[in-house]
Amino acid sequence: MAGIASGWGRGWMLIPVWQSSTFSFGGTPVGRVPEWSKGTDCKSVSRGFESHRGLFLGFGIIGPSGSALPGGEARSPLRLPPNELWVWDDRSDGVHAILVSLTIILGLGVLAQVIASRVHLPSILLLLLSGILVGPVFRAVWPESDLALDPEAVFGDLISPIVSLGVALILYEGGLSLRFRELRTGGAVIGKLVTVGAALTWLLSAVAANWLLGLPWGLALVFGAILTVSGPTVILPLVHHVRPKGAVGPIMRWEGIVIDPIGALLAVLVFEAVVGEGGHEAVAGIFYGVVYTIVVGGGLGLVAGWLLVRLIRNYFVPDFLQNAVSFAMVVVTFTVCDTVQEESGLLAATVMGIYLANQRTVDIEHIIEFKENLRVLLISSLFVLLAARLDPSDLHAMGLATGVFVAVLIVLIRPISVFISTLGSRLQFRERVLLACVAPRGIVAAAIAPALAFELLHVYPDQADRLAPLTFAVIVGTVLVYGVCAPFAARRLGLADTNPQGVLLLGGQPWARAIGKTLKSLGIPVMIVDSNYANTAAAWMDGVPAYHGSVLSDAAINELELTGIGRFIALTPNDQVNTLATQRLSRLFGRVGVYQLATRPREDEDGSIETPGRQLAGADATYRKLTTIWGQRGGVLVTELTPEYTIDDLLAEHGDSIVPLFVLGDSGRLTILTPSQAHTFQPGQRVISLASNVEHDDEDDRAGDGG
Question: Among residues 386, 450, 375, 404, which one has the least CA distance to residue 171?
Fold first, then answer.
């Protein structure tokens, strides 16, 4: 036996056989073997075996391709002496492989996100390419390297629960971003997309899979149900990259998040109908399955959200533990629901997030911020893991028919489902076209397909194993096509908001309203926020959109219409309010997009004040100075620079009675001036300044300061 073992190559496996095992050799494996028996190389270890007597039968040997021990059809277990036990490599090798794999997955995922943000590409594309590089490419070219990532060999059966929990947390975070107020304009469309649109996608995809791919009808129906899902793992990064205007963005987010639990449930129910008895029993089973899933998933999701709110409101959970408790409750709720009713956990996680996002009892901004950071890490890791599982031989064997099938999904099936679902809606034609251009498949489809394919092997032994590679081909194809085409389509349709130039102004005092009015007249979207009703009313009278309320409240963040707005400027005389506001709004606009006006002169040696927001205007620009300039018959000047009249001429003409604030380029790009970043003024640019001795409406002076 030892002599045979010494001649084994890499990939041969020694499998222990027990009395309860149904594992067979030389054919398709049936049943399960102990987890510790999985590995690549083997060695012998002598130790007592008395405790296993009566249960242990012997060992079977399987080759890399599933063949039996060389030299014969080993249908029966091999016998070994009772005092000799053959096991796999020591656990230290497995632990090292897991550590290296986790490091590669996390490191590559985050690096891909950073590069995508710098080069303005959809992060999904780089994540998939990274996973394919370290997975199938490295395994083919550099198989002995630790950098050749093989998730199946390293993680084994752990992949499924890891992916499931990751998807649940992503759906929970996605639910936290959904506001019921968004349903006022797109609620009917969203409802039809996740019902009528999902049904059309399912049936048309099944027909196409049967005709183009040759799948049997039962398998085609299961495959079509799997393809109804999309999910926040692919939709949210794409929406973040495209930044669509109007109602399209919320519709995309709602559809992408809500369709995941619906599609997963549909896939499981169709699977049960295919493997079941059929007829009235199957229809009744599907009906009761839907009802039971909604009751279990929706009910427990609401209960978990309500319980978390009560725990926070009644101070049972200290502030520093609220994120941890929220995380744990999602995991527990998901697991309990999936244990009671399969695929109801995703619905529970989504419902829990939506409930928390729309309640008004406790502040959950810190939970949302934590979950957003967690979502980035999960999406990065899951997509690298997903791509690394790819087997090039599977995709190579699929041929032209698979490409045609993916093209049919994109060019025919998605547009048909969207246009039928939006009939009679108020959406413009170009908005419907953009919706038809976004339907990538994500991690939920990749998680469901292998599990259902394994269960369908006894029904379709020659075809079921095609389900997983076909699903991955659809994921790669739709992500690549939509990732490249959706931003282009949004720009061509005039619905892209990839670089919003608009400004949100905190403070509606007279000179702030004048700035807002001037920017609006130049085509820059503007919104003023002020807690002084007189200031907001005056802004509306001037034609400048305004919101009456505190920018520090949850209601303001949820209700502000920020289409086209990409920067925030705090202009109140209260330095604490400005600081808190820039801290809060940096979550929406990033630190690079928040500014605040200094309330006192710069005091330290380099002339800067440490604030969360970037300081507005020049070194000596303060609230008092701008108010003083306005009191000296001040107004907002828009000065076009020429070769003959430069910025130096403008400053020399007005002296200390002018403060340049913005520069508007020929392309409509607005630059906010700061003392920390020098700007090169060019002819053709327009400088927007606050200066004294400029005609303005004196009635504006009657309104006081706000914030």
Answer: 375
> Are 357 and 181 within 8 A, CB to CB?
no
Under 8 Å between Cβ of 146 and 100: yes
3-state secondary structure of 47: coil
Give DSSP secondary structure letters for 443-491: HHHHHHHHHHHHHTTTTSTTTGGGHHHHHHHHHHHHHHHHHHHHHHHHH
Q: Report if pTM > 0.85.
A: no
The 3-class secondary structure across 608-655, one letter per residue, is CCCCCCEECCCCCCEHHHHHHHHHCCCEEEEEECCCCCCHHHHHHHHH
Dump the DSSP string for 227-273. Answer: TT---HHHHHHHHHHH-B-TTHHHHHHHHHHHHHHHHHHHHHHHHHH
> Strand, helix or coil at 530?
strand
Q: Residue 666 — left, alpha, or beta (φ > 0 → left; ψ -120 to 50 → alpha)?
A: alpha
Instruction: Report residue 554 as tokens.
Output: 């949850």
**How far apart are alpha carbons 300 and 333 in whole angstroms?**
7
Question: Over the stretch 171-216, which tens digit does the pLDDT of each residue have?
Answer: 888 888 788 877 877 888 999 999 999 999 999 999 999 999 999 9
Q: How far apart are alpha carbons 308 and 303 in whole angstroms?
A: 9
Question: What is the tally of helices (H) and strands (E) in the chain?
Answer: 27, 14
What residues form DSSP beta bridges with 605? none
Find residue 689's DSSP bridge partners. Answer: 637, 660
CB contact burial 157-178 (16+ within 10 A = b; e otherwise): eebeebbbbbbbbbbbbbbbbb
8-state DSSP, 181: G
Tens digit of each residue's pLDDT (9 = 90 or more) over 19-45: 444 433 333 333 333 333 333 333 333
Contact 299, 285 (CB under 8 A): no
Report the alpha-carbon distance of residue 191 to residue 436 in Å, rounded: 16
Rounded Cα distance, 230 and 474, in Å: 11
